[in-house]
């Protein structure tokens, strides 16, 4: 499998070093245009398709660093990423994820995967300052505003997002997706990242909720396990507070779900499945979500045998 590096950071440096009156046009051309496969589909869901300046609309939605945010702090952040060997480390992490999953041996056709690291807005990604995406086939994207702790977390994000690339090509990943499929996909991606880079490399999302809270939430998730309304599914995965932030503070359906509950529960479900079966995260990436959900002991899934979960019984 060929890895292609999309040098978005180098392009951003070129933008910030250019004359101010040329920066925005160069940003569209050098930063956003190579990423068009990532953002073009996203804009299809907007009423106006991104308006008169779709590239800039997408950049704002994705919380990218923009030329208007200033030359000096942007260049300083790029210097920090360069000193931290972010490009090199995440290329290596991507190769490690490919080697672990061996997608071609499982009939997954991904002849090329592109890795893009983008500079994020300083206040766009919250306290953690980083995020990733792997929902576009053949693409792994990271976005980061560097701080004292987040650069070491990025290789795990790369592994997580490549796991999505592979998982989303499995036969039981269909659209519209169910809550159960999404829940298991996030749990698998985090378990895979932890297996390659250590549990300490994970972000806070899977550890936000304790076991007692997850047990209390289980009946809600069980009842909605086959829900396919995408807004509702995302509400269970991300929780009320995050969904409100996604919508710019506008009113959203209040499900009473804590932030990132789907990540925390999905991770626990997958960990219990692995413990029951002896499967590795890489092997389980190719297992049907219904099997994982049922054999974890957390959920009753029609047609699947149920084994009690240690987390549910201890």
From TrEMBL:
InterPro entries: DUF2268 (IPR018728)
DUF2268 domain: residues covered: 112-286
UniProt cross-references to Pfam families, sorted A to Z: DUF2268
Source organism, top-level taxon: Bacteria
Protein name per UniProt: DUF2268 domain-containing protein
Organism, scientific name: Deinococcus radiopugnans
């Amino acid at each position: 499998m060929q890895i292609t590096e999309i040098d978005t950071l180098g392009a951003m440096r070129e933008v910030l070093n250019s004359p101010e009156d040329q920066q925005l046009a160069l940003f569209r051309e050098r930063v956003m245009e190579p990423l068009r496969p990532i953002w073009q589909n996203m804009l299809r869901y907007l009423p106006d398709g991104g308006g008169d300046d779709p590239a800039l609309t997408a950049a704002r939605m994705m919380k990218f660093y923009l030329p208007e945010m200033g030359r000096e702090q942007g260049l300083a952040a790029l210097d920090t990423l360069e000193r931290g060997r972010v490009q090199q480390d995440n290329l290596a992490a991507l190769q490690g994820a490919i080697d672990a999953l061996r997608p071609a041996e499982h009939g997954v056709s991904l002849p090329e995967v592109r890795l893009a690291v983008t500079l994020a807005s300083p206040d766009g990604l919250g306290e953690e300052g980083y995020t990733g995406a792997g929902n576009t086939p053949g693409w792994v994207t990271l976005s980061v505003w560097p701080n004292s702790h987040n650069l070491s977390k990025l290789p795990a994000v790369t592994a997580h997002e490549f796991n999505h690339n592979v998982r989303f090509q499995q036969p039981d990943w269909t659209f519209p997706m169910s809550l159960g499929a999404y829940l298991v996909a996030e749990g698998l991606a985090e378990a895979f990242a932890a297996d390659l880079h250590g549990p300490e490399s994970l972000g806070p999302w899977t550890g936000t909720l304790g076991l007692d809270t997850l047990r209390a939430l289980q009946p809600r998730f069980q009842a909605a396990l086959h829900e396919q309304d995408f807004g509702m599914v995302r509400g269970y995965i991300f929780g009320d507070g995050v969904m409100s932030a996604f919508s710019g503070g506008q009113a959203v359906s209040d499900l009473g779900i804590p932030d990132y509950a789907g990540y925390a529960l999905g991770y626990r479900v997958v960990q219990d499945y692995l413990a029951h079966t002896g499967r590795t995260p890489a092997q389980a990436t190719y297992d049907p979500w219904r099997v994982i959900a049922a054999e974890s002991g957390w959920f009753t899934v029609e047609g699947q045998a149920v084994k009690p979960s240690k987390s549910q019984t201890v």
